[in-house]
User: Fold this.
Amino acid sequence: MNKICERCGKNYIAKDERSNRPSRFCSRACGQPNQKKSMMIRCSVCKKYFERKKYHIEKSGERGQFCSFDCYATWQSKNIKGTKNPFYNPDRHEILTCSWCGVDFSRPKYVRSGKLLFCSRLCFQEFAKENYKLLLPRGYGMSWISIRKRILKRDSNKCQSCGSPNNLVVHHIKEYKTFKSAEDAHKDNNLITLCRSCHRSIHNHPVEDQARLH
Assistant:
């Protein structure tokens, strides 16, 4: 039914009109002009003003208001980290000492790690700068594509350990990082074709399996 809004005078179609509840306004804004959906508030982290719906503000409670996920993440890192986290369970955590800065930190017991322990990614990066000096570039270089094809062809596109023709990789018998130049590392006598299963086995058990390749 076509009707005229009693507030703005605009023609509109009354879609949900009932006999006991006649339609009078074209929209909620005209029907409830004094009930604003949103309001301007200040971010608890960056202090910028932004618009937020009222029910969102009430739902947030004492936690504060955040204009973006970045600001929310910043607040989380300061307020619900470690023992402040509501899901923190002391029986499932252990106190460790960072191998770089020497600060004690808490971590879940199920997290796997080696002998070296770090309280943050920054500490690991600083440790790596001092102790993990690369002798070669991380990539194998532009020539690796043609070298890999040549070795696969030489080995008849089969794993030289189990004979499988599937999921093949070219393996460095002597580790790539131990060479001073990529040219020496990529010599034919240091390369062999393996399937991914045998390749993974060699890296997991280098002493036993590596001897089979020589």
